[in-house]
Structures are given as structure tokens and as C-alpha cells.
Here is the input.
Amino acid sequence: MTSLTSATTPTSDPPMYCANHPETETYLRCNKCSKPICLKCADLTEVGYRCKECIREQQNVFYNALTTDNWIAFAVAAGITLVAWPIVAFLLRMTGFFGWIIAALVGSGAGATLAQIIRNSVGRRRGRYIRHFTLAGIIVGLVISGLITMTLTGFAPFFSLQGLLFLILAMAAAYQTLRW
Here is the structure.
């Protein structure tokens, strides 16, 4: 009879502490490396909970970009924006109310097209930071083209809400297209 009660009582394992947060008590381990992790450090995958380091290691298999690919993406985005933005801003301003419609319809397509040009220019390699360098290139191209345009023609391409809508949609589309 005593053996029956001792077999049904749960054994209490000593508590572990998270490897990243030593003050947090946990009973959870990464299913790949068995490191103790708390719920803040755990990510639920299809096969169980994993630590962020194991997930990052698994994702690194998919990224094959070279170090120079980030700078190529930056240069291509800045160059295309430098040339295209004054033309786009001028056309959107000249179309009046229809500029809103054009900006809404064409903005995301322009961003996706820019992303495909960048993807082809880096040899279709994927990188973790290519999309960030692309956004930085777009911003640098905008600033330089705005300064050149204002200096040469007196036309201020930044002061247009239609242009702002176009830019937001284009940048969001380029960022999402280059995500993978």
C-alpha cells in the first residue's frame, strides 16, 4: 500500500534558471540544445520550444548573401531613387487629385519592382540585412535628389502628400519583397 502512494506522488525536480535571465526560474528547455530557457526566451516552433540562438542558427542556412551584397543593394536603391524620385514627384503634383489614385495604385508596384532589380543585382542571394540597406539607400537617394532638384529648379519634391503616400507604399513593398 505504501508503494502505491509513493508511485503516484509526483517527483519534484529542482528548479532551473534561464540561461539568459539568471533570476527567472524555469522548467523549460530548448528541444535542440537542452539549454534552460524561460518563456521570454522561448519560441514555439513546429517541433517544440527552441531558444533564439538555435532558431538563428537554423535560419542562417537560408541566408547566402556576401558582405558586399548589402552595399550593392544600398547603391542600387540610392541610384534608382536619385533618378526616379524627381520625375515621380513632379508627375504626382501635376496630376492633381488623380495623383492620389496614381500614388495608391503604383506605389507598391514601384517598390516591388525596385526590390526585384536589387535582388537581380545581388545575384538572387538572400541576406538578413539587405532590406535594411535598401531602405537606407532609398532615404539617401531621396535626400540627395531633393537637394539637387531644389537647387537647380526651385521645385520642392518633398512637399506633396501624394508623394508621401507613394513613398510609404513603395518602401513597405520593397521591404517585404526583400524579406526572403
Residues 1-9 have pLDDT under 50 and may be disordered. The longest helix spans residues 67-94. The first strand starts at residue 16 and ends at 17.
